[in-house]
Structures are given as C-alpha cells and as structure tokens.
Amino acid sequence: MIQKAARDFAQNELKPGVIERDEHQKFPAEQVKKLGELGFLGMMVSEKYNGSGLDALSYVLVMEELSKIDASASVVVSVNNSLVCYGLESYGSEFQKEKYLKPLASGEKIGAFCLSEPEAGSDATSQQTTAEDKGDYYLLNGTKNWITNGGTASTYLVIAQTDRALKHRGINAFIVEKGMEGFTIGPKENKMGIRGSDTHSLMFNDVKVPKENRIGEDGFGFKFAMKTLEGGRIGIAAQALGIAAGAYELALEYSKQRKSFGKAISEHQAIAFKLADMATTIEAARLLVYKAAWLKDQGLPYTLAGSMAKLYASKVAMDVTVEAVQIHGGYGFVKEYHVERMMRDAKITQIYEGTTEIQKMVISREILK
Ligand code: CAA
C-alpha cells in the first residue's frame, strides 16, 4: 500500500515538470509540501513526534518509487528522514525533539545535515569548523560545502570541532536555525545531476548557538555523524536502486516499441542481453537494499549491509542508466526521453553520503575486524 502510494505520487505529482525542474534547477517546493502531507518526510519518526511510525523497509520502498521518476525530490526525502529526523529522534534531548523534530517530521519544516567542508568531505575527522564553548552558548565559525537543502532548510544539524587536541572525540553536533545572526547561505551550486535539489555552501561567522542545541554529551558529534550516515546510506542505496529501475523500465518499454532491421530492437540479442544484465543487477541491488533495511528494523547491526547496498546499488545505477541511454540511441541523448537526466543523476549516488571509496573502506574494515 505504501509502495503504491509512492508510485502514484511519483507518476501524478513528480513526473509532470521533472524535465523543466532539472533544466532550470528548480526546487520541487510544491511536491515536497505534498510529500510532507503524505507523511513521507518523517516516515520512521514515532507518532509522538508527528512522524508516521513506519519502518526502514517502508522507507526504502518509498525512496525507490520516488527515485524512479525524480531523484531531485527523493534526495529531500532521504536527507530529512535519515540524516535529520533519525539523528534527532535517536540522540536529541526532549527539548530538541519537541522544538525541532516535530515540525521536521510533519514536513512543516525541512532539515539539512552539515558535515562536509571544503577540506573535509570523506576525511570527516578533519573538521575545520569550530565551536568555542562560551558558557551559555557556543561560538560557531567555519564553512560547510555541498549541503543538500542548504537554501530551503530551516533547521541545520552542523558538525564542528570544539577541542582540536581531542581529535574526533572533540567534535560536536549542533542544531542551528536559519536566521541566526552570522549565518549566511552561499549561492546555489550549478550541478551536473539532481539539479532540482538545492545545494549550497553555508558560512558561519560568530554564530551564537545556545548550549541546549548541542546534540548528546560533549564530544559525541563524530559518533553522531557516523551513526546517522550509516542509516543515510541505506536511503541513498534505495535512491540508486530507484534511478536504475526507472531507467530500466523506460529502456524496456522503448525497446519493445522501437523497430530496426524489421523487428523490435528487444528482439535483437544485442539489446535483449543488455536488458537481461540490467534486470539481474537491479534485482541483486534490490535484495541488498531490502536486507540492509530489514536488519535495521530488527535492531541488528547494519553497517556492513548498508555500505554494501550503497556501493553496489550506486554502481548498478550508473551502469544501468548508461545502458538505458545506449538502448534509446539518439533519443536517449535528448531530454524528452528522461534517461540522460537519470544518467546524470546516477553519478551523485557514487559520491554523496560517502563515496564509493569510503564504502569500500567501511566494508573492508568490517570484514577484516
Ligand atoms: N558508528 C559509531 N561509531 C563509529 C562508526 C560508526 N559507524 N564509525 C566510526 N566510529 C567511531 C570509531 O569507533 C572511533 O571512535 P573511538 O576512537 O572512540 O572508538 C571514531 O569514530 C573514529 O573512527 P575511525 O578511526 O574509524 O575514523 P576514520 O577517520 O578512519 O573515518 C570513515 C572513518 C568511515 C572514513 C568516516 O570518516 C566516514 O564515514 N567518512 C565519510 C563521511 C561522509 O559520508 N561525508 C559526507 C557527508 S554528507 C554531507 O555533509 C552533506 C549532505 O548534504 C548530506
């Protein structure tokens, strides 16, 4: 039922205008509002905090369906659910849940997760943003890069160094509100893919963050980021799966309609074998994604499964979208047929929330430990 609701929403609400939003880098504001009304922005948050109280498997089904049509919209769902709401519900104080989680879970407000910096993306312990303890508040200074929902968010979870000597144990996570004095938002990035999503740099110049906005115990920020990203990777794996499945469905349909040398191109082995490879790898990615979500739902460790799902599904997304363009031939190279956008969108799944190389680090550490 949840899968069908997401599928219908994607067809009826996301598909119209998806090409124009990509072309003009237009944020899907109306669609995101409706996603909030459907309960898709706080899917795993308990009803007590205005969430939908669903599980991770439901969440990945929704991510997959939305991503088949519009990865720019689904990344908003992913960041808000996995990186912001999950982090706040799991590790936030009661005050933080009441004040910040509730409007984020209902979709009334949008959140952003701010870890990456100009010099610290993959190497997350090398945070240059500082938060100096001033008694009642912290003084935040620094720059964050590539922040999804950077312009549209109201609530920002910002990771910063409070004591450099303590390395990763001197890192904290803070809730920063849009409009706090000294907090400015840089121009929107002009991106290759997921162009409808809203990516910005953020600048913090002597921003006073009240002490009650620190998440968890002093020094918990790095673990907070790692735990939050762990769940985020399952959402992005589901996004990659959806992009692949969406491009495959279009290529399959096209190959049955398009004729060359007297028959449908799907009847040529050169195309049929491509479709066979696409279908097989998508199914394998799907099983990895569902397994990671299922493990999370069982309360079992999912670090390894989540990174495997993201590593594999993002490769499948890239490979399948390239083949989908190939099957469409010249039509695949023009915007009306959607697959060129999907090919551009697929690339980000190998980069954000931990690059392919980071997933290989996590996987190899897990299997060697
Ligand atoms: N859960 C809990 N704790 C963890 C953990 C996990 N999954 N992974 C590491 N830790 C802990 C370790 O136990 C260790 O703590 P102790 O010393 O107290 O035991 C501490 O964190 C440091 O661990 P490592 O020595 O393993 O750290 P590392 O520097 O080698 O880095 C890494 C590990 C996996 C590479 C990590 O840095 C990483 O995930 N990097 C990628 C970060 C990333 O995804 N960046 C993109 C963010 S997205 C964004 O900001 C923008 C947006 O819009 C979404």
UniProtKB/TrEMBL annotation:
Domain Acyl-CoA oxidase/dehydrogenase middle stretches: 112-207
Protein name: Cyclohex-1-ene-1-carbonyl-CoA dehydrogenase
Keywords annotated in UniProt: FAD, Flavoprotein, Oxidoreductase
Positions of the Acyl-CoA dehydrogenase/oxidase N-terminal domain: 1-108
SUPFAM superfamilies linked to this entry: Acyl-CoA dehydrogenase C-terminal domain-like, Acyl-CoA dehydrogenase NM domain-like
Record GO terms (molecular function): acyl-CoA dehydrogenase activity; flavin adenine dinucleotide binding
Family under the similarity heading: Belongs to the acyl-CoA dehydrogenase family.
Cofactor: FAD
UniProt key word Oxidoreductase: yes
InterPro entries assigned: Acyl-CoA_DH_CS, Acyl-CoA_Oxase/DH_mid-dom, Acyl-CoA_Oxase/DH_mid-dom_sf, AcylCo_DH-like_C, AcylCo_DH/oxidase_C, AcylCoA_DH/ox_N, AcylCoA_DH/ox_N_sf, AcylCoA_DH/oxidase_NM_dom_sf
Class in the EC hierarchy, top level: oxidoreductase
EC number(s) recorded for this UniProt protein: 1.3.8.10
Acyl-CoA dehydrogenase/oxidase C-terminal domain boundaries: 221-367
